[in-house]
Input
Amino acid sequence: MAAVYTKKTRHIDKVLEDARSATAHGGQLIVEVLAREFGLWEKLRACPLLDPRKDKSRGFSPEAIVAQIVFSFCSGGVSLSDAGRLGGDKALGELLGMDRWAEETTIGEWLRGQNEAGLRELWGIAREFVGWVIERAKPGRVRRGGELEVFFDDTQIEVSGKYFEGVGVNYEGARAYSWQTLWVGPFLAEAEWGPGNREVSASLGSLLESTASLWEEDAKAGKARFYADSGSSAGKYLNLLDERGWNWSVSYNKWTDVLERLAGEMGEDQWSEPQEATGRNGEPILEQYGWVRHLPGQDCQRAQTFAVVRFKNRDGGDLMWRYAWVVGGGSGQKSRLHEPEAAREVFAAHRLKGAKEQGFHQLLGDMDLHHPPCLSNLANEVYYAIGALSFNLLMAVKVLYLADDQQGWTVRSIIRFWLTVPVKISSHAHRRKARIFVPKATLRWWRLFIQEHYPKRKPGRPPKDPPLVEPTAG
Output
């Protein structure tokens, strides 16, 4: 029998209680376990360059400040103010071993007290964490088709106001920073900050060098694939990508006059069979694929291979063919240059770059990293590095702990539906107990997680360890 469901008003008695013993962010225990097993807090504590205090006997240590920013990001916070507001969550502090939270001004002072050497140490720890997770994850969760994907991109972080340090006026006439990033698998492995008017691939070489330990072995074995957009299509950048053993592809939409002439001279037998397809605007088109060899500029060390697609409106609206190009290489590609159909596969593989761009959009959008919090250039760069570390922790929660059908979850979904669970802390007979109220569907997962990462204590006075936590069906 069909039923109609409507919005109703429920008459339920409301009772207000002091929330000092409860928190809505109990799922941060998962982030804490992950960070602790990697040794994140110890590694940060061992970095003297991250500690600007003159008097080390007072104040907040570096790992305490970084932990507060990380836990703020991982619980949905998007600003220094949100990080400072954790001070009102006493139960979360007790749950995570934070005796006291820093105020917003203290966090800002710590960020402004950083230096370039400390920033590089912070990124070194982030890269080490990425490698640690990749080693432990199921291959299918960090690799696609057996290949470790490496992705380079640059984004513009626009700001308003005249007092931000280090900004530049970009091609759109806006004051902006340039954040150039290198991704390995689903993780942001390294980034460099600069003015918005710098060359869009200026940091490609240095980022490849600093992250080589993560992908070089796979590249030599032919099990890595590199993607980039057209900003990396100049000859000097193609030289950096060539001869590394990996499969690589770069969008190419500049300096195409010679390429179009060469494509126009190709015989019909050099093109694949025409096939019906859908254009970018949803219009029906006919398309054919092929290969072109060309030396793109004097600074390129050798002629490159270009996969080309020519297309026109299927209903006869176009008199001339239009073209699109992808330049790239790899051991598998070299043996198939006589096959026009293989060029189609290059375009299909390069379109996977869109999934990597989506990960970048999650980082910027779900964590609101479109808004630098400080006027100081270096302070913003450090803040964004911690944002990237927080993003990697959330991605690690997904690839290491969640089920196969949850691997498509976004950062926002992980925070909202997995990490936002209520916890109440109580005390009895010298023992502190945290009761975690979780959905019944996840109760078994939580029980196994607690058993593995929080073994039951022996009788007697409790040691100074993380608290015993017990999941309760909510």
